[in-house]
């Protein structure tokens, strides 16, 4: 009677350890790359949906729903945040720098603890933040002036 119970317990324990190891290996694969390296995560519909949820929960209060950084909370904290809806704002910032700022915090910005977002989710968040500039409607050219003539 105890042998089947012992066997079932061993199988369950092995399954738990194996699944934990795969999560750990996935997390290790998404560690911060060396300086200047590119983002190791490729965007998928699921990863960007998760990144959007993390952004709304942890970032939007200060950085704004559209990433423009113009929020009441940012003003109350007396911080000037970059406008991520402008493509020029992040153009010169490598993903590694953004990862470090998100993971470790910067100035008044708190760190994004690993318990709230795994490394691969932070990399996905960076892709989501970069996409904010592409989500903005393109400026429409002003209408051509109407010729003024003698009537």
Would you kindly provide a written description of the structure presented here, covering whatever features stand out?
It is built from 7 helices and no strands. The chain has 151 residues and is mainly alpha-helical. It has a domain of 95 residues: Orthogonal Bundle (Cytochrome Bc1 Complex, Chain D, domain 2). Helix 6 crosses helix 7. The longest helix has 28 residues. It is globular.
CATH fold-type name of the domain at 40-134: Cytochrome Bc1 Complex, Chain D, domain 2
Fraction of residues in helices? 40-55%
Q: Globular, elongated, flat, extended or rod-shaped: what is the shape?
A: globular
Q: Summarize model confidence as the mean pLDDT.
A: 79
Beta-strand percentage? under 5%
Task: Throw out a few tags for this protein.
single chain; Cytochrome Bc1 Complex, Chain D, domain 2; 151 residues; 0% strand; mainly alpha
Describe, in short, the structure shown.
The chain is mostly helical. The chain has helices at residues 2-29, 45-58, 60-63, 72-76, 87-91, 95-104, 119-135. α2 packs across α7 and α6 crosses α7.
């Amino acid at each position: 009677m105890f042998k089947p119970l012992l066997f079932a317990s061993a199988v369950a324990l092995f399954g738990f350890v194996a699944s934990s190891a795969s999560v750990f290996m996935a997390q290790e694969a998404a560690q911060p790359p060396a300086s200047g390296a590119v983002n190791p995560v490729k965007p998928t519909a699921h990863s960007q949906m998760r990144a959007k949820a993390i952004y709304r929960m942890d970032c939007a209060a200060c950085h704004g729903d559209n990433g423009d950084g113009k929020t009441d909370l940012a003003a109350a904290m007396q911080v000037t945040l970059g406008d991520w809806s402008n493509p020029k704002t992040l153009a010169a910032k490598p993903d590694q720098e953004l990862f470090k700022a998100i993971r470790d915090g910067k100035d008044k910005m708190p760190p994004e603890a690993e318990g709230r977002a795994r490394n691969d989710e932070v990399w996905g968040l960076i892709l989501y933040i970069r996409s904010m500039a592409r989500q903005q409607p393109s400026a429409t050219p002003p209408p051509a002036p109407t010729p003024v003539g003698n009537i």
